[in-house]
């Protein structure tokens, strides 16, 4: 049986190896949005990848880049999926009544 540590290691290796293969990373985060934790910083700043991740699990916002934690579309999608995701939004959006 595969341990959690083995899965983390595998995801880290895959995300680095396929860093420029957005389709593969998109599949990983569409299966489980929290896989965003294991992708490169470059991909944590990719709007399509992060939006896919937060639509699957709003709490994936925790692993998004600071720039995307301040993106209204992404934060709204995260909150729509899980209200608790607001905790990971930028201070500006936490105080925005439209979110």
Question: What this model shows, in words?
Answer:
The protein has 99 residues and is mainly alpha-helical. It has one domain (4-94). Helices cover 53% and strands 0% of the residues. The chain contains six helices and no strands. The chain has helices at 4-17, 22-31, 41-44, 47-56, 72-81, 91-94. The mean pLDDT is 89.
Contiguous runs where pLDDT drops below 50 for at least 5 residues: none
Compressed to H and E, one letter per element, the order equals HHHHHH
How many individual helices?
6
- How many angstroms does the end-to-end distance come to? 42 Å
Strand content: under 5%
Structural class: mainly alpha
**What's the total count of β strands?**
0
Average pLDDT number? 89
What is the approximate shape?
elongated
- How much helicity do the residues have? 40-55%
User: How many structural domains?
Assistant: 1
Oligomer type: single chain
For the biggest sheet, the summary is:
none
Radius of gyration: 13 Å
List the helices and strands and how they pair.
Blueprint: H1 4-17, H2 22-31, H3 41-44, H4 47-56, H5 72-81, H6 91-94
In short:
With 99 residues, the protein is an all-alpha fold. It contains 6 helices and no strands.
What labels would you give this structure?
single chain; 99 residues; mainly alpha; 53% helix; elongated
